[in-house]
Each structure stands twice: as structure tokens, then as C-alpha cells.
Amino acid sequence: MTDLVTLKIDGHEVSVPKGTLVLDAATKLGIEIPIFCSHPKLDPVACCRMCLVEMSGPRGASLQPACAVPVAEGMEVNTQNENVRSTQEMMLGFILVNHPLDCPICDKGGECPLQDQTMRFGPGISQLVEPKRHKNKDHLISDTIVLDQERCVVCWRCIRYLQEWEDKPQLGLFERGGETLIDIQPGQPVDAKTGGNIIDICPVGALTNRVARFNFRPWQIERTPSIDPHYSTGDNIRIDTRTHQIRRIVGRENMQVNDQWIADKTRFAYEWVNSDQRLQHPLVRKDGELVPASWSYALQYVVDRLKEISRKNGADAIGGIGSTKLSNESNYLFQRLMRQFIGTNNVDHRNGGDVAALATGLPALADVMKPQYGPNPKVDTIFLVGFDPSEELPILDIHLKRAVLRGGAKLIIAHPRQIELTRYKGPHLAYKPGSEVTMLNALTKLAMSAAEKNDADLSKLLTGATQQALKDVCDVAVDDAKRAAELLAKSENALIIYGPMAADGPNGPQVVNALTNLAMITGHYERLAYIGLDANSQGCRDMGVLPTKLPGHAELNDAEARARLEQLWGCTLPTEPGKTYKQMLDAAGSAIKALYVMGADPASERPDWAANLDKLDLLIVQDLFLTETA
Question: What is the pTM of this model?
Fold first, then answer.
């Protein structure tokens, strides 16, 4: 049971866990203490001194920063007396001395903690009669973030976020005293994939969004909760709109998913929504040209042509490609259209291999997505296979960094190249592309030895997975592989994560089998997780946008699942497995005569696919823009 400490704050007794900061204890009682540098997601630094309160101690009462001092048994805290009030007013006065009077034009105006606290705790008049100091008001510290150095109150929040969450000390303090500035090193802009979060945590209008600035006032916007449209981690966001147009996107707190952080792509990549290039009406090709058509004409044309091709060539001459960019509802209806009305299982969303990847370990990802503020016994080893979260899933990336730096987890990386996370000095198995199976089988063999386990059947399968093969075929250092195998074998709560590079390649099924063997022999099968990269990768699988799976991951030959769907849909479902995404594109113009592409753009992925699409009798593209496929 957690040790409790009892203290009094403004005469009110409260018991809180040992180690709780005085500021948090006061918050529990509903007592407000003004802050600027303090932030619940960042380590305390006590640099702004706004939270000074009177605390009892062995030498009597003294002013101490509530954001940095932990509670003590029998402590008495006063946040309201004249000494505290005058000190807080004085500290706020110092902050305001050179702060510009930009409120009428500042993006933070109306939601600014400095404004609010000036009204509640500040002096009535300025202490300065001389001209204010002037600094750079339009300083680009990245392509998307603007720093107004005049407004900065030097709270260090931006510095600490980049250090503590991104592990990238890209901002620092320059000069001294009243000339102190926060800035980047010359020629080294902030390039962290989640760096835009420093805009949200800035307590004043010093850091602004270059895309959104001067576009709205906070009281004019309508706030709508939503989910990240780009990444599969399901990061919680809030979309702020004005006059029915998106003005900005900010993070929304969910401690089980993204804490309160979002990736820069999510924050800044939304201007396409208001693009004048978006299609306004259907287009039908006539005499080689796309011409506008009415909805009734376009829909009837598609229906007639699909019926004609199905009658002439059979339903399996028609294929459908769904999209990870679209909702569960859209993808469910799409696969139902292909199966119920067209009569084919030619439906897929994956532009890689044909692996219906394992999802057994997805719940275990929650153990690493929770904020790491100390040792985490639920995750002691993390093994990444063919997956670069820094580039592919930035929010998962910062949680993995916290798991390593704060939670004490060991990190193993199997990837053909150096990725950002390899700097954490764990074993890096830099295998040659295509040698994944040999590498994983050799690792399994080493793990069996490290765990002192013997599986005769598995040993037969691993006969060729020697240390020599590891060196010659995979170009992997044997010592690194031994270290990785020992970590996995002796770990109690390892998490094994693999991505599309591993699962969707030409040898994807063999890679997944090898990973399964490794996870089972080390006792981590329930913590083996495939993670897609796009926003609704998992939803597409759940909805059955797969050539060999029905909704709910039911197999095509699952009689009970088929009967349930046939009764629900009022049809007889096709029984033959369909073609994969790749197989449909490879067969376009031959076995596949018509292709319905929803929210995907295969023509942009491979030139031979683009050429094959030209051979189709019918190509239907459902998209917001005139893509290369369209």
C-alpha cells in the first residue's frame, strides 16, 4: 500500500502519497497556486518562482516553490497570507516588466495563462517607466513554428519537452539576466517529429503555429473532438474550426493512448481539406477525357458496366481495393459490396504481402503507451523488427524513448539500416533485406540455448539457422545476436513489435512464422504485436477488407460466421479466396477486367501497376482528388 503523508494547506488537512509535490496536494484540495514553468507532464525546475508559498520547516516558515518541494509529514502550507500574495504579485510584475502589450493581436489572447493570472494575482500597474527591451518577434525555429522572443517568459517548457520526451535538446538558453533568450543553435532548426507540441504547452504566445497564426481568435472557434487521421496509434485530437473551415489541430489528452501529444504531421497537414483542387462532382471518361457528370448518371454507368463485366467474365474478374485512410463503416460497406452484390472475395487494402498479421500482442502495447515517469515492470525489453517508429509512428516513438530512458526497458532493434532509436546502444541486428527469416530462426536457436529449452520439432526446423549463416547470409554480428537472444530469453515482460517492412514483404508469411516461433520459445507470444502504419490499418482488418477473411477476422471456411453473415445480408457468400492487392494489380487487364479503388492510389506506387491499370475494361476511383490512379 502506498505510504501516505498528512499535511495542512491553508488550514485544510489532506493526505497524499509520499513524494507528491505541494502544488499537486493543493490542487487536490481545489486550491489554486499560480504557475508558469510547472507542467504536469514535465519535470519541475522551479525557475519562474510564481508558485512561491509559505511552508513550515525546522527553521520556521519560509517561501518555497510549490512545484518542486515534496510534501512532508506534519507540514503546514499557507498560500493566501500577505507575504505570499505580495511575493506572487512582485514575481508577476517582474515577468510583465518587458512583456509586450500584444494581447489584441496575440494568438494566445483569450486562452492565455499570463492574462488570467495577471487579472487574479498581478499588480495593478507596471513597475517599468523606461522603454521595454525589444527582441526578435518573428523568429522561425522550424518550418512550422514561430518564436516571438519578446513574449517569452523563459519558463523552459519547450526546452524540457524536447529533452524529456523527444530526447532532442534542440532548444537552449542564451545570454544572461534580462537578456536571456530561448533559441536554436545557428543552422539547426527544431526537427523533432512531435516538436509542435511545444506550441500547446507554451503558457504565453511566444510559440505560434506558422500555419494557423492570425487566422482566428480563440473565442471564435468551434472545438470538435476527433482521432488522428494519419497514424494507426489513434492519437486523440481536437479540431478547431471557424466559418466551417479547419483553423488548427491540437492534442487532446488520453492517458491510455497519446497522453496529450500529437505528431507534427497531424498538427500541420490539414490544409488539403480546404483545397480548391478537391473534386466537386463525379467525372466520367468519354473519348479519353474525364468530363463532369451527374451523380445519377455516374452511379448508373458504374452499375451497368459492372453487371456487364460480371456477366461476360464472371464476378472474379472484378476486384476492389479499400483504404486505411477511411472509416470502419466505409470499409465494411465496401467489402460487403464486393462480396454480397458483386460476388467475389477479391478485396484487399494492403499494398505489400498477403499476411493477415497477428494482433495477439496489441493489448500489450498499452503498457508502453502509458506515460513513463519511473521504472515500469510491465515492459522490461522491447524488440522492434522491420519497424522505425521515429519515422513511421512518432507518438509511439516518444513513448518507447520514455520506456527506455525513464522505465528502464532494454531495446533491441532488427532493421537493415541505422534508425534513430539505434543510438540507445541496445543490440542492433542490421540484417540484409530478404534475410529476415534466417536472422529470426538463428535468434530463436540462440534464445533456446540461453533459456535452456529443448524443442525437438522446432530444432529440426532450425537446422540451417547457424551462427555462420547469421554472419554470412544476414551480415549480422553474432555477439549482437547472442546479446539480443539472452535479453529475450531472460526477460519477464518483453514486447515484440513488427511492422509492414517485416510482414508485408515477399517472404512475409515465413517472417511471421519465424517471429511466432521466437515469441513462443521465449514465452512472449501474448506480447507479439503487428502494428500497421496508417490511421485505420487495424480497422480494415477488423472489417474484413481481406481476400481470405470475413469481418471479425473469421475465416472464409468458417461455417458459423458465413451462415450468420448470409442471414444478415440475405445472400450466398463466395467461397473461393480472393486475390490480394498485389495480385489484383499484377493481373489488371488480364484476369482482372474491372477494378474499384476506394481511397488508394496504386498507380503512384509502381510504374508497372500504372501501365496495367490502362489495360482495364473499367476503372472506378473513389477519392477526394484527381489522383494519379484516377
Answer: 0.90
